[in-house]
Amino acid sequence: RIHLIPGFIGSEQANWMFEQLLQDIPWGQRTHIRQEVCFEEPRLTSWYGELPYTYSRITMQPNPNWHPLLTMLKERIEEFTGYTFNSLLCNLYRDEKDSVDWHSDDEPSLGKNPIIASLSFGATRTFEMRKKPSPEEDGDYTYVERLKIPLDHGTLLMMEGATQEDWQ
């Protein structure tokens, strides 16, 4: 299930929060190695959580030092949704060239059917999802269902249930 909550953070407050996070978060760019080729992730990231987090064969070390604004946003989302969250990966897309590749948040450390909350700040970006092909389709994504969701400044996107199992 996917839930879209536009205006979860009002525009003026979102502007202030975005500026604070841009200035205060220790953004970094990670390097990946695939088939002996090194490349930098086309975005900046910052990890917060009590445990290490591994994706795409990169492990981010525990970072329990949440920025106070991130803690406040986490608590606000928890109060609104009724769920508890224990970690956060901040992504900063600097321009239209920055991106994230097709993926599912299905790492074993997240457990079965993790609940993902995504809060967007800044320019509107299109969040694309595609249904994973059935075994009969043998990994062919040509005819799978696709969604394009515009994420505006201050919008909250919730992904629940089997979303990570069934979609990228």
From TrEMBL:
It holds the Pfam family 2OG-FeII_Oxy_2. Residues 84-168 form the Fe2OG dioxygenase domain. Signal peptide: none annotated. One of its GO terms (biological process) is DNA alkylation repair. One of its GO terms (cellular component) is nucleoplasm. It comes from the Eukaryota. It catalyses: an N(1)-methyladenosine in mRNA + 2-oxoglutarate + O2 = an adenosine in mRNA + formaldehyde + succinate + CO2; a methylated nucleobase within DNA + 2-oxoglutarate + O2 = a nucleobase within DNA + formaldehyde + succinate + CO2; an N(1)-methyl-2'-deoxyadenosine in single-stranded DNA + 2-oxoglutarate + O2 = a 2'-deoxyadenosine in single-stranded DNA + formaldehyde + succinate + CO2 + H(+); an N(3)-methyl-2'-deoxycytidine in single-stranded DNA + 2-oxoglutarate + O2 = a 2'-deoxycytidine in single-stranded DNA + formaldehyde + succinate + CO2 + H(+). Its cofactor is Fe(2+). GO terms for molecular function: broad specificity oxidative DNA demethylase activity; metal ion binding; mRNA N1-methyladenosine dioxygenase activity. Its main location: cytoplasm. It is found in: Cytoplasm; Nucleus. Keywords: Cytoplasm, Dioxygenase, DNA damage, DNA repair, Hydroxylation, Iron, Metal-binding, Nucleus, Oxidation, Oxidoreductase, Ubl conjugation. The keyword Signal does not apply. SUPFAM superfamilies: Clavaminate synthase-like (SSF51197). Its EC number is 1.14.11.33, 1.14.11.54. The keyword Mitochondrion does not apply. Dioxygenase that mediates demethylation of DNA and RNA containing 1-methyladenosine (m1A). Repairs alkylated DNA containing 1-methyladenosine (m1A) and 3-methylcytosine (m3C) by oxidative demethylation. Has a strong preference for single-stranded DNA. Able to process alkylated m3C within double-stranded regions via its interaction with ASCC3, which promotes DNA unwinding to generate single-stranded substrate needed for ALKBH3. Can repair exocyclic 3,N4-ethenocytosine adducs in single-stranded DNA. Also acts on RNA. Belongs to the alkB family. Interacts with the ASCC complex composed of ASCC1, ASCC2 and ASCC3. Interacts directly with ASCC3, and is thereby recruited to the ASCC complex. Interacts with OTUD4; the interaction is direct. Interacts with USP7 and USP9X. This is Alpha-ketoglutarate-dependent dioxygenase alkB homolog 3. It comes from Tichodroma muraria. The lineage of its organism: Eukaryota, Metazoa, Chordata, Craniata, Vertebrata.
